[in-house]
Amino acid sequence: KKASDKVQQRHCFRCGSEKHLANDKNCPAAKVKCDKCSKNGHFARVCKSAVAVVREVIVPEFTVLYVD
């Protein structure tokens, strides 16, 4: 199928609802903090931020012995 054959459904980018758009003053996500990116105004389930990459660096511990 062509892309033009697909039905584009509009939804709120703040909460994901198909019943209103983001400019609706009653959107439940308008004043919340996202648990994924910590920005205000949207739920984590619709967050467009890239997933944070957490890297762990392991430094082996060692003991240095000095001989006199």
From TrEMBL:
SUPFAM superfamilies: Retrovirus zinc finger-like domains
SMART domains: ZnF_C2HC
CCHC-type domain residues: 33-49
Superkingdom to which the source organism belongs: Eukaryota
GO terms for MF: nucleic acid binding; zinc ion binding
Keywords in alphabetical order: Metal-binding, Zinc, Zinc-finger
Pfam family, one: zf-CCHC
Record's keyword annotation contains Nuclease: no
Stated name of the protein: CCHC-type domain-containing protein
Organism per entry: Nothobranchius kuhntae
